[in-house]
Amino acid sequence: MAYISLLLLTLFFAPAEADHNDAILIHTYEEDVTGDGEAELLELKGKLFAADGVYYQDIWVDISSPSSDKTWRINYGGGYDPELQFADLTHNGVMDILYQSPTGGSGGLYTSQLNQWEKGDFIELPLPVEQPVKGEFMDDFKVSVQLLPKEEPILLDVSGQKEEYIRLNLYNDQGKLLEPTTLMIDPVAFFEVIELEEENQPGLKSFQQISGAYHADQIGTVESTWIYDKDEWILLETTLQTELPRLEGSVS
What we know:
The chain is mainly beta. It is built from two helices and 16 strands.
């Protein structure tokens, strides 16, 4: 009797294998992603967490060759509203597959994955790492943003938010910062495939949000342009896009 109870418990709590029989076809693409000169069929599929929901607990793409019985599958995990983009980002003459899907959080972050065809299969490649951005509040309702370690910080006027910052006890009425406070630096939110005119080849642009006292208190967005060269991502340019007034002078 004890053996039967143990067996039932084991069956009840055993992790279920992924069941793709109830998969939903999200998008269909036709692209040559193997370099054989023929367009493969790519079917982006997902399994909803709830029948009436919009969150996919499992997302993957099935890839099939038009002239053979070969098939491949790339798994992506969970997410919302996924999509694929195609570009020869690694400059080997074959289209790479860039997957992106919103995580659904308040920070506007995406899950991203890059896959490349290599030696008969699809391997995952690293994506650019976010810039080591630093930012902090300063006296007189100012913030300092340093995009790169050796660059001069950018000074911004945040006095338009002074009443809110005083209410939050970040500043006093005279604009004195009550305690050292850093800005909120998010990781890269998502990537955009772009054409690099000078290099005459595709690259990536990353978007990284900077916030003040909370996520909705947006300071700006760091936009960085990248190119893949010799098995690594090279930073070409990084800028801060902001609607806040810029101030002259250096950080004291």
